[in-house]
Amino acid sequence: MAQDSSLSHFETVAAATVDGFPQAFREAARAVAVRVTDWPDRSMLRELGLADRLELTGLYEGVPLTQKSVWDQPIGPDLVWLFRQPILAEWRHRGDVALDDLIAHVTIHEFAHHFGWSDQDIARIDQWWL
C-alpha cells in the first residue's frame, strides 16, 4: 500500500500529534495554528539565512510562552508551519523512518519552540537531528 503524502494527511498527523501531548502542554498547544504547505516562502528562507528550500522542514512563528506578557497585543495566532516537500525529501533520503513519525517529529520540534526551547535545548535531549 502506498504511503499517503497529501497535505490533508500531514494535517491529520500533526493534529493527532498535538492531541497526544501531555495534558500540561495540550491546551497551550491547541491555541497555536498549524499550517501545512508544500514549500516555505522565500521571505522565510531569507530571514533564516537559508539558500536551499529543502533545508526547512518546519517553522514556528510567534512569541514563545516563556516570553509572552499580559501586556502583549497579539497580531495573530502563533503558527507552526510544516513544509511537505522538504519533509518528503528528508523522508526519502533517510529511508529509515516512517513518514508519519517524521511528520510528528517535525511537529513536536516546532511546538518545542512555542514552549520556549531553543534548537540547542532540543538537541540536548533529541538525538534525531544528529
Structure, explained:
This protein is mainly alpha-helical and 130 residues long. The termini are far apart. Helix 1 crosses helix 5. The protein has a three-stranded mixed sheet.
Q: What features would you highlight for this structure?
A:
Zincin-like; 130 residues; three-stranded mixed sheet; mainly alpha; 48% helix; 3 strands
List the helices and strands and how they pair.
Blueprint: H1 7-19, H2 23-30, E1 33-37, H3 42-48, E2 58-61, E3 79-83, H4 84-94, H5 99-114, H6 119-125
Parallel strand pairs: 1-3
Antiparallel strand pairs: 2-3
**How are the strands of the biggest sheet laid out side by side?**
1-3-2
**SSE pattern:** HHEHEEHHH
List the total number of helices: 6
Mean pLDDT, to the nearest integer, reads: 87
CATH class: Alpha Beta
Major sheet: 3 strands, mixed
The first-to-last residue Cα distance is 30 Å
Oligomer: single chain
Strand element count: 3
Instruction: Enter the CATH topology name.
Output: Zincin-like
Proportion of strand residues: 5-15%
Uncertain runs are none
